Amino acid sequence: MSSGIRLDEEHTYDREGPLLELEGVTKYFSQESGLLAGMQFDPGTFPPISVDREHVEAVDDVSLEVRPGETLGLVGESGCGKSTLGRTILRLLEPTEGDIYFKGENLADLSGEELRRTRSDMQMIFQDPQSSLDPRMKVGQIIEEPMRAHGLLDDEGREARAKDLLEKVGLDPRHYNRHPHAFSGGQRQRINLARALSVDPDFVVCDEPVSALDVSIQAQVLNTMDELQDEFGLTYLFIAHDLSVIRHISDRVAVMYLGHIVELAEKEELFENPQHPYTRALLESIPVPDPREDGARGVLEGEVPSPVDPPSGCRFRTRCPRLIAPDAYDWADGEWAQTRAFMRAIKRRSFESMSAAEMRREFFDGRPPGGEAGSVVEEAIDLVANDGETDREADDEADCWEAATDLLLDSFAEQSVCARERPAYELEPERGDGTHFSACHLHR
Amino acid sequence: MSSEPLLRVENLKTQFFTEAGTVRAVDGLSFEVREGEIVGLVGESGAGKSVASMSIMGLVEAPGEIVAGEITYKGETIFGLEEGPDGELRKRDDALSDEEIRTRIRGNEIAVIFQDPMESLNPVFTVGGQLREFIELNRGLGEDEAKAAAIDMLREVGIPDPEERYEEYPHQFSGGMRQRVLIAMALACEPSLIIADEPTTALDVTVEGQILDLVDDLQAKYGTSFIWVTHDLGVVAEICDRVNVMYLGEIVEQAPVDELFYDTKHPYTNALLDSIPRPDRTVTELEAIEGVMPEAITPPSGCRFHPRCPDAREVCKRVHPEAKVVDDAGGEPHRAACVQHDAFDVGYDESPPLEGVAGGVSTVRDEGSGDSGADSELAANPTGDDSGGGSRE
Amino acid sequence: MAVSESQLESGREPATEDEEEVEARVGWRYTVARIKRDTTARWGLYVVTIVLFVAIYAVVDSNLSLLTFGLLSDFTFARLLPIFDHPTHIPPPGEGTQHMPPYFPLAEQAWNPLPAGGTLEHPLGTDHTGRDYFTRIVYGTQVSVFVGLVSTFIGLAGGTVIGAVAGYYGGRADDILMRAVETVYSIPPLILIIVFTVFVGGANIWYAVLGVGITFIPVFARIIRSRVLSIREMDYIEAARAAGVKDRHIIMRHVVPNSFAPVLVYATLQIGVTILIVAGLSFLGYGAQPPTPDWGQMLNIAHGYMHSNVWLSIWPGIAIMITIMGFNLFGDGLQDALDPRIDD
Amino acid sequence: MKLLKYTIYRLLQAIPVLIGISVITFLLANLGPGDPVSLMLQGQEHSEELVRTIERRYGLDRPLHERYLTYMGGLLQGDFGQSIHHQRPVADLMINRVGPTLLLVLSAYAFALATAIPLGIIAANRRNEPTDHVSRIAALVGVSTPSFWIGIVLILIFAVTLGWLPSSGLIYPWRPPSAYRGIDGHLELYYESVRHLLLPMIALGTLQMATIMRVERTQMIESLQGEYVKLARAYGVPERTILRKHAFNVAQLPIITIVGLNLSTAIGGAVLVETVFNINGMGRLFVNAISTNDYQLVMGITMMLGFLFVIGVIITDISYAYVDPRVTYGERE
What we know:
CATH class of chain C: Mainly Alpha
Order of helices and strands of chain B: EEEHEEEHEHHHHHEHEHEEHHHEEHH
Oligomer: heterotetramer
Number of helices of chain B: 14
Largest interface: A-B, 64 and 68 residues
Structural class of chain C: mainly alpha
Shape of chain B: globular
Largest sheet of chain B: 8 strands, mixed
Helix content of chain C: 55-70%
CATH topology of chain C: MetI-like fold
Membrane topology (chain D): Multi-pass membrane protein
Keywords (chain D): Cell membrane, Membrane, Transmembrane, Transmembrane helix, Transport
Number of domains of chain C: 1
Family (chain D): Belongs to the binding-protein-dependent transport system permease family.
Subcellular location (chain D): Cell membrane
CATH superfamily of chain C: MetI-like
Radius of gyration of chain B: 22 Å
Protein name (chain D): Binding-protein-dependent transporters inner membrane component
Low-confidence stretches of chain B: 357-393
Mean pLDDT of chain B: 81
């Protein structure tokens, strides 16, 4: 397309290789700041005061690559670290560890002015149409600001380009002198687009750009983004929580859970042949706008654990419906599934106390597992069963449940390969010719 | 209709009297809810669905006011207006008084679940205390009984370790857990009808799935009726029995859920369905709806959807269609407010198509200034159509 | 805030206005328009304008006419009624023992003070030395307004620098600065100001102003810091960083302009607090020194005549009250005018 | 348990602040152009030798940091040094003066809270009605009027003109009745102490009352618009309960903070009110110390008042934590 809207047609980097490559990118946040932050006071120990800074492991050892011209979708639930990853890539946040190669140059090594200059090649679009535009600036100034920062064009040239861009994103160039508050959410996202494109970047991180918009507006903005990608030769990293939007816009999709990439594959492959239990759960959970479709839903139990103290090994294992049986025990058919369900019920204390016999019936159809595993299960049942004592104090009762939980988790959950090793497997894709990465030990 | 419905709303009109003019947030709404069914109220933001649900509870806050309509619940009039001798509108004599609505209807007959689980619970009281207060009030139980009922209900809605969590404060609960607490509140008062105002919008998709499952189970168990307010057609398809689609304060289509999706009768519903990306299949090109919903303060003439409607004709600008029965789906009426249908007979077929509906009414003009009719200084954007689905039939 | 449908959805009134108004939702013109509409702000503005006018008049007047006493006394009502013949020269200090003009606000009079109450010549009577009380009250405006504006400015300037640095950069710098601010904040301001004034300077209005200004730096630093912190979280700051805009441009173009409005409101209210404190300081004898016509200092003197002339203690207090009320009204109004959330 | 942890945490946090206060006070008193000796000898003829002697006597010839450490060492043992003017330990001078000041400040707060909170709630509930307007104007006048002038006016009206109440001094209820001439029995002692306290209490409390009322009103208005209030309405909770329980409890949180932070204004105000009413509290002691250039005493009093303020803030912080569960239990997400 020769619209003259491109500022640099030539590319100095190798177009064959990836545009962006992440190697072991990690971002931890320390939880508090302040002179006395992290100070813990515990009268039970000596000395009673200790300094212990807790870290939120927002992104942990993420490696991936983004190819020129593609849209990589990054999907996950709130708190999974997807936005943090997006910002760390642009070095709006300092990576705790890892390398970020953009056009072959390691961004993690750049400092100050060098880094600032690379920003003309990478831009970002934000989620919140309200707060992403300075309310005191006019639309024209907003769009010109990045160009001004990089000394592109002269005043007249910038104005002309800003008006051009307004038109490109579907706004009236005559709105050049308006303030952002005069625009609706969808229009503000268009202004955001125009600002990002003003320096003619190669790579744009889109952080939930349409999730604040109404469905009908969403479609308009998505279509515009599509068109602009072709015209400007853009590469998108598209961050979203909405799988439908991701399916529409992406070429390849990465799924994140609690700071880890759990699955990465080409779009069709990922949606039609998901290999990670979390991806499957996610896909099954989305309500489909079709009343005749009645698939399973809500298959995930419990809640996302705290990123301050994430589970070892596979971070999804605490909720995984397919947690692998620990090898240390011998399991007959179905025994492990029953034990797993029993373990989680105890942990979540999701039933009222009952007698040992009732528990065996409820969770094991009256036939608890035998062998070593069986004796652990029996021990746990004894701990929580209310046969013996009739009137236990509430505190005692809580202690018993806790003891049973610890026993079961230590004996089973922590023994599973899922808890001991961090999974990472390359699979043969069923569709397309790309690679299929799945972080699940089921593919051992 | 075979039997008296649980709730009947007729010609409900709620308006907000602002400096800038009268906002007709809900403008002539009629629908009903029967025993044990989930009725969807669907629309984009600004459609008036939340105002409608608040109107049913009599909880419209100033400067808003219900100016017309009748709401009947279990045969009793909970809202009704009549013209007094002086020509002023006043409350009908047979309607329940405010005090009666408060003590007899709110909570114990009709309960609500709000959209924002983070803000809806009082931060300085324990979750259990708040739950217990509502139970005591609406079921007349003593303190201990109410507490036992509250803990049972917390367990019922899937909150782990309910005895301990009873004593905890809202900020110690995650969003999904708080939403469960709100659901527990609604159910614990044993109402016959629950109004759920976007209850899963603020939640993650897996949590939403859990909540929908929960509602399904509990609804089967208690037989409670629901009015489910949402903008998400996926959720509608999953749990609703019958659906009302709202646009700019009016119901444009009313049908059982299957008919709505497979035998769509209104262009707005149709366009909405076409514009959403699908999780179950790849859609290469989204067909966006042109423009945005105009302000309810200056609704377009005739059919309110006509400036954005791909099927709009000259007549649509003039005739304002009320929803009429256009089809019958196994005894269930299928209503739509579109003059395309034979039931209207206003000469749609002969009417010439509107000039440049798809491209002429620009996104910019509608979105920005909010005035869709009068000529504003800002003319239509010549490139407006490259923002949407292009020109289509 | 945009004209958004969601406002309507939540039952709040949507702000729909015509094109011009939409255009002017930020900036001075818009603020002025809001102030015009807000009754509180309007009244505050009236009072502040009158007070400022009186103060400026007194400045201009004393500059021009301290040596030409005739003009000076023009201001009083008495001058309107040509009863007295005013001499046109000012006696050198220490010589004020002869026949002295009654309206000169500084020199003490040798003649017997008039009894309490007003006369046509002296609407508010005269003080213990026979000086016209009204003239002194009027000139007191100048001192109060000067003190209020200058010390607030000192606090604002110092607080802006500290608060902006602490807020924008955060981390260790923030910790140390804020701990220092907290410390200064912990000593009751009146106490700190007195200690500062007396031990560092010596009882003197200039040191009082400086002391008040410095003491209020922490207050401003705190509010500016919290404002900067909330603005720093805004996506448009991150957008500017992502666009490669330099830090100092971000601070100058985005952070400062957007922090300004609430700080301005706060400063306006702070002027009142400052006047209040300096009045207390002068009342104790550590602020303005005689013969400067300062309200607090006048109350100090009047305290000794409480039983003989009640009104001497009344008028300066009323003057203080009206002045501070003016700034408070204006500040309140400004707050409403600048805060989009409050709409009544 | 959590509350205890929090309390200790807050006390630890106060240590650097207290050290900071001592540094500031010490520097102001020792670094100013008016050095202690010449301040002491102000107006007197003095020889070099006299200066030396005095310096040696008070240890002023040693380097600044040493003097500071000595001073701090004394402080830790409750020794505030020796008053130059009174020739007595500073601590002794202060010990009798803290009581009246505390009595004055606390009663002023009691008065302010007891009047401001109901008025603020009424104003919020009748928003934009005449009641609201009147109370808003009253509050505006309250925040705009100097406390010492209110004291003067109160004296003029109630003591000078009407003669109902005494115009100066306090009667301390903790002393035996025999300490005062003409007072028989405890009942009369309490009666008299209330009569004496009334005017200074109102003079000092008006500013606090007006401030608290304004905050209470805005907070109640905001709280009444909260989603949780909407929810309570939807569940049929009577409007009165909503006002008194649901909206009220949330609205009180900022009030607690305001009360703590305003303590410094109140302590400053006490200096003025004590002067107007001739009350022998810390404030008058301070004014005397200043006018006699008694820098040791000034330092002692400043430390003491700063300390009182810090303690006050800690108490309010802890009560805040008690009322608002979000402070002690960290956010779970």
